[in-house]
Amino acid sequence: MAFNTGNTGDDGEVVSAINTTPLVDVMLVLLIIFLITIPVATHTVKVKLPVDRNQPTQTKPGNIVLAVTADGQTYWNTLPVSDHKDLVNRLMEAARQQPQPQIQIRGDGSAQYMPIGKIVAACQEAGIQHVDFITEQPHD
Fold first, then answer.
1. Structural domains of the chain, ranges and CATH numbers in brackets
2. Would you say 74 and 107 are in contact if contact means Cβ atoms under 8 Å apart?
3. Taking the alpha carbons of 94, 95, 96, 101 in that order, is the dihedral positive or negative?
4. In this predicted structure, what is the pLDDT of residue 1?
5. How far apart are CA 51 and CA 69, in angstroms?
6. How far apart are the C-alpha atoms of 115 and 66, rounded to whole Å?
7. Residue 53 has what pLDDT?
8. What would the pLDDT profile of 65-116 be if each residue is shown by its tens digit?
9. Residue 87 CB partners (closer than 8 Å, separation 6+)
């Protein structure tokens, strides 16, 4: 920053005012840079997001309910599933049925994602067309 040290008159006082012109120049340059870069930083791909219908799903007798407990144990309706291969075999049998049954996954709220993710992968591997996740309405 520069200081003006010139005399102001006959009394011999020194004027020590700060020259703010360089400060204003720097601030204007920064303002222009921010105005140019903000639209680029906030640019996203425009997509139309799906709307949640949140309609209650009714469990029909032909539907298969896969439940995952908090400790990660998987159940086929009410029977425990021994391993991933057993689950895939059962799902392949269900996928051959016409019409194909609906798979409903009921995961405990405190369950890890890994067992539920394995069920989804098994459904995909078996060729299941329709998989639902069962949730509860929030209590007000």
1. 64-133 (3.30.420.270)
2. no
3. positive
4. 53
5. 29
6. 11
7. 57
8. 888 888 888 999 888 998 889 999 999 999 999 888 888 888 888 888 898 8
9. 66, 74, 76, 81, 118, 119, 122
